[in-house]
Write a structure and sequence with these properties.
Elements (H helix, E strand, L loop, with lengths): L2 H20 L9 H8 L5 H21 L8 H15 L2
Helix pairs in contact: 1-2, 1-3
């Protein structure tokens, strides 16, 4: 079992759900202990598969509930990028 792959899969699903519902990512990551246990091989493959399926369902439901726009505000992104560039190179 590729424990690093599965730990990243679960991490990304946890982060996706949080972004969709809360429009934020927490640090340290939510469910950190579970992700670390998966990475260290402390969780069996059948259990990891069950967790991934459960997280996928949660992300799918979060997508339906999300208030995020379907496309980014490109003007706002451009303005932010230019502000960062200008502040670095002043």
């Amino acid at each position: 079992m590729d424990t690093k792959f599965f730990s990243h899969t679960v991490r990304l699903l946890v982060e996706c759900e949080e972004i969709l519902l809360e429009e934020n990512i927490s640090f340290p990551i939510k469910e950190r202990d579970l992700i670390l246990d998966i990475k260290l091989g402390k969780v069996s493959l059948p259990e990891v598969n069950r967790i991934v399926d459960q997280k996928w369902e949660q992300v799918t439901n979060a997508f339906k509930l999300s208030k995020l726009p379907m496309s980014p505000n490109k003007n706002k992104i451009h303005e932010f990028s230019m502000d960062v560039i200008n502040s670095v190179f002043k």
